[in-house]
Amino acid sequence: MVNGQRPRKVYELSELAKEVPELFGVPTGTKLDELFFTMQRDTTTGKFVKKPLGGIPYRSVLNVVGQPDTGKSLFAEQFACYQAARGYRVLFVTSESPAEFLYAGLQQRAMALGIEFARVEENVFVIDASIDTQLREDIRTLLNTLEYAIRTKRTSIAIVDSITGFYEHKEMAARQIVRAVFNLLKRYKQTALLISQKRSSQGVETAEAAGGLAVAHIVDGTIVMDKKLIETKWEMNLYGLELGSLLRTLRIDGCRLCGHDTSTWVMEITESGLIEIKMRLSDLIRRFSR
Question: Among candidates 92, 96, 76, which has minimal Cα distance to 32?
Fold first, then answer.
């Protein structure tokens, strides 16, 4: 007790019931929407069955990590356009590509999706940190700008591409920066993607590959995107791909908010720049190992 008062961050469990967010999916327009699920009891059999969530978990902050050219930014743009077309307001923070190039990317993604671009222009709001040193280097300026944009534009979706752009050359501060951004997004009830570039010596297929453990241990879940160059005849026979071609994969590394598929999935980037999740990697290998 402090001066006879209970500390304000100590709760009885029952007091939190009214604060629990509803669990449902925020669609991405890809097969990823089928890979998150909840377990529900069948009223007839009494057994628990999987029920697809229909998207990434509402109000989750997910880390999307991978090497360059694995499709992370394309996925972020695709998700932004898809949600904007559904009438949701999206905040897009770019620390990599200047805003005018982001505009062109969103325009291309909308065209490929068959979305009227006017809907995207109306519902997407941009913070351009790519050429603003103070935004990238000063966490307080970044947080104030994020808070202002979320409140005044009334957004419900947030995308940061990339979060690693805010701790370049200062990996020791990564945990502090990611935690501060995560807490702000949670406070303002955003469903968010934090795009992470591979930064550490960890294997590219691991969640630790961006910002060490700073990102993976703080966020609600991680989606790992990877690519493999087919270099040997053995790999050609294993995957059924031509020598020199790329095998792209996607895997949900973890999610603390709901169940998720643990398989590695084969992913493609179409000629129009869209992400398509095709089949489990194990099924691809099984097809060509018969």
Answer: 76
Pairing of strands 191-197, 157-161: parallel
Report helix, strand or coil for 260.
strand
What percentage of residues in the chain have a pLDDT greater than 70?
91
> How far apart are the C-alpha atoms of 179 and 153, rounded to whole Å?
23
Pairwise CA distance, residues 282 & 290, whole Å: 13
What is the Cα–Cα distance from 44 to 49, expressed in whole angstroms? Answer: 11
- DSSP for 51-114, written as a single string: EE-SSEETT-EEEEEESTTSSHHHHHHHHHHHHHHTT--EEEEESSS-HHHHHHHHHHHHHHHT
How large is the C-alpha radius of gyration of the chain? 20
* Sequence ranges of the domains in the chain: 24-43+55-224
Distance CA 247, CA 241 (A): 8
Q: What 3-state class would DSSP assign to 170?
A: coil
Alpha-carbon distance of 245 to 227, in angstroms, equals 10
Number of CB atoms found within 10 A of residue 163's CB: 28
Q: Which residue has the tokens 């200047």?
A: 98
| Distance of alpha carbon 284 from alpha carbon 99, whole angstroms | 39
What residue ranges of the chain have pLDDT lower than 70? 1-6, 198-214, 290
pLDDT in tens, 22-64: 899 999 999 999 999 999 888 888 888 899 999 999 999 999 9
| CATH level 2 (architecture), domain 24-43+55-224 | 3-Layer(aba) Sandwich (3.40)
Q: What is the model's pLDDT at position 209? A: 47
